[in-house]
Amino acid sequence: MYRQKADRHIQDCRASQAPHLEISEAQQISVASYLKLGTSNVHERLHHHPLTGLLISKDLGLSHYILVLQSFERFYSALECQLNKNACPLSDASVIRKDLSSLNSGSNPLPELQLPVFITELNSMLGVQYVLLGSGLGGQVIAKNLKRTLGLDGKRGARFFIGSGKKTLLMWRQFLQNLESACTSKKQCRESAILTFQYLEEWLWQVWNLKMLARFPHNINI
Asked: How many other CB atoms are there within 10 angstroms of residue 178's CB atom?
């Protein structure tokens, strides 16, 4: 039952369309606004996912949080394989592993994740960075809840979500300024940003499905 429910949800997610803009409309708005509009549907769905939705809840438990970190570690590791090949080093997966180690979670029981190759040039890389850097803003809210509900901080369990801390907003604004001049194709940036969210959503549903079935297969390919 749980597998069928998750599979149906993934199919619905893939079938849903991002808000459509005519070419003339797309040319009139900033790259950041174009990406925000294009990713709004899948971004909102992630806020209500059974795994990530609890991150800002007072009902968040440690075992649930560890599963979220384990899920993110696999996802970020898969992303880093492509980003590193495009001269865009990312080290978030190592930060997540340090958080897991500080929580004495043991080895990650989730299977390795393989993502389709979709980061192939500058514009697709910028779309991914838009998602990853933007998530740092929400991470500040999550970090406060981790401190409040689980007593976690930068020294134990919450380093990933704390990220750059007070510098997060400034870094985000600087990225958006650079995005306007660096992006040469709004469409390509938008497509890679949407794919980043969609691949994460699909992966989280698979993890949730595995949690419900209480078993972990050797490999999962999206």
From this structure: 12
